[in-house]
Write a structure and sequence with these properties.
The structure holds two protein chains of two kinds. Chain A is mainly α. Helix content of chain A is about 60%, strand content about 5%. In chain A, helix 8 runs antiparallel to helix 9 and helix 8 runs parallel beside helix 10. Chain B is an all-alpha fold. The chains are: A mainly alpha, B mainly alpha. At the A-B interface, helix 6, helix 7, helix 8, helix 10 and helix 13 of A face helix 2, helix 3 and helix 4 of B.
Amino acid sequence: MTATLAPESISAEPVATRHERVKTRQPGWWLPLALSVAGGAVIVATLPWIDPTTEGTTGLISAAGPLYVAGVILLSSGFAAALLFDDVPRWLLGCQVVAFVVLVVGLGALVEPYPRLAISYTHLGFAQYIGSHGTALPPIDARAGWPGAFSLIAVLESWIGSSTGFVIARWAPVVFDLLAIAPLFVLTGIVTEDRRARWLAIWIFFAANWVEQDYLSPQALAFTMYLVVIATILAVFGSRSHVGHRAPGALVRIVRRAQLRFALHSWSPQTPLNRPLPAATRGALLASVVAICAALTMSHQLTPYVLILDVAALAVVGRTRLGTLSWLLVLMAIAWLSFGASSFWSGHLSLLTGSAGNVTGNVSAGVSGRIKGDPGHLLVLWSRIAIVVALVATAGLGLLRHWLRHAEQLWVPLLAAVPIVLIGFQSYGGEVVIRTYFFALPFLAILSAAAIFPGRGRVARSTRTRGVHAMAAARRAIGTKLAALPRATVQLTPTVRVLAVAGVVAAASLLGLVAHYGADQSEQVGIGELSALSWFYAHVPQGSDAFTACVNLPWRYEGAASYRYKTLVAESYGHPLRELHRLLSPERGAYFIASESQEVCGEQQLGLAPGWLATLESSLVKVDHATLLYDADGARIYRIAQPQPLTRERSR
Amino acid sequence: MNFTQLDHDSWSSLPEAGGPPPSRRARREASEARRWRQRAVLGAIVLDLAAVAATLLHVAGPVRVLLGLGFLLFVPGLAIVGWLRLNWPAAELSLTVALSLSVVLLGSQVMLWAHWWHPVSLQVLVGALAAGALCSQLLWSHAPSRELEDAIEELS
């Protein structure tokens, strides 16, 4: 191993000056480049042989095969090596992250011919309704009150000449992930100047992002905008010092009087935007932020409120001078709720306020209520939990290392913690914990990267208060105690260090892959289901009731408001016929759609016995004289002409 | 002169106020970044015209998909952000994308409210306005800003 290792990688070696580093530069950066190219080539070569229909209960990774896994390990090792070797080209880390996003995070889009996740099809259906009718959606769904993203998709469908939008939905995850890189790079640049820390944070973000909110959805669009707004607020409107002293708000005064200000914004690296900008530029940037916020408010139910909390929190601690933006956001959200989405909440107010304060119930619905299923699915769930625990632990370590080096910026843990407030207000369909993690993820990733590359900060002169001196004493005391701890006497050679770090990064990448695509067996969409639904829309008269057993049926991509779509709730699977009869209209009858992926969904995610769907179908035929109209490629459509009265025996 | 107000594209080498003057490398990076911005604006103009033409001519296939997506993600935003000269490529790129999406989204909402759903007309309108803004940026960017001229003169 001839290359020099970066001075600040893991070990506490003295930081070399740039002159020294240039002096000792050796041609070692070819190794990370070679590893990455080899990994990328192996992955690309493997893709045509990955058949998602053969995967097991651990998801897509089981179908990917050992060669693909070897490619991921090589790619991750290349990234790890680039982090450790000094003087790698500036473009290398960025290219490696892009390759990781496309080839590993975007694996589903690469190997599955149809868009993943049934919910994407519902969103396509909403866009199709807007595109074909030219009007807003009727109140068929809570999402209809926030149609911004759907109208955007409808416009895009028109521009690209796509009648179904499948091509948009298939590639949406890759596009949204790529779009998140730039705002994340800005956010990390506000924390540190170290490019390795910045790119490592972005890598961690994608490796730990198993929540899969990047599909074609309002939340994916809103999250991209959210990142940009937060990054712009922090980068441009970050510090009061650039516009002179202004009278602080009451809370800021309290904080300052308590001499805690030292801990709130002690240091910030130089960026191009924390210099005085011309008033016109600042005004244009503010107008841009407001426009983005307006678009965001029309698109998603939850994100505007997270943004309100974030901006308010930043204003309270004096990290932004745009405190009024949070009030403006509140006004926009209320205005939209009152005018744009009134048709939704006027009839469903309990959905908005029903779970407020029920923290235990909201957490239970989001965590413990979901830990069930077959052993393969449980492995996937526990890998997700392991990622969250590891991320929070390393973020805590990163925060400590930042603090010891005067490099802490407490807005980062603050924004990681703020989304937790959501748990107290909403269950969000049992997803609030997942969404909380998603909104905290960028900031947890930044802190986790700081565990390896903590950087070094300084205390600004203006903040050298009594509290600062006390904090400095505490830092010295803790630093001394940490230095006195017994250290490992084994001296790792550079090769071993590179291998160790590469192993950790590769393991994290593979764990992320398992967590991300672990439920793919029920989340992928097959040609059988799409053919059946194509038949359904061609032959079933509009206005009919359509039923299915699990939520993972890719329907509603057309005729979103032309049929009454109903799904049996999971709680009713023990007595499906009873629930079905409660929903069925005795006059009209209904159509029941079943598919193999629903069978898998019930077995994997709900722990139902194998063959549960076949039992349900045979009961339908026996009790209600359901007629099989369509049966091909593992999908079936039944017509229930007139439901029979259900006796107690039959309901069993 | 205040070096921190340079119309400078290389923020990493920006000197702090009162620090040493900008190096030759910084000047080279500044002019290089300016050339990159010009190329980006030129590319956006080509993308703008090609995407609108593809829509109007009903071109089919992946080329139109890429053109339409590129138009949606970059053209309206760059027409606005290009004027700001933030000198931070990542910030400019992220704002460009978010503004592009927001402009088209707000435009589509206006069409819905007005009961006038014509997405192709929206593309032509946005494309024409953006082309005008981008062309003027291209013409304007040939003239170096006063601060940059001062800096170069002082260095030479």
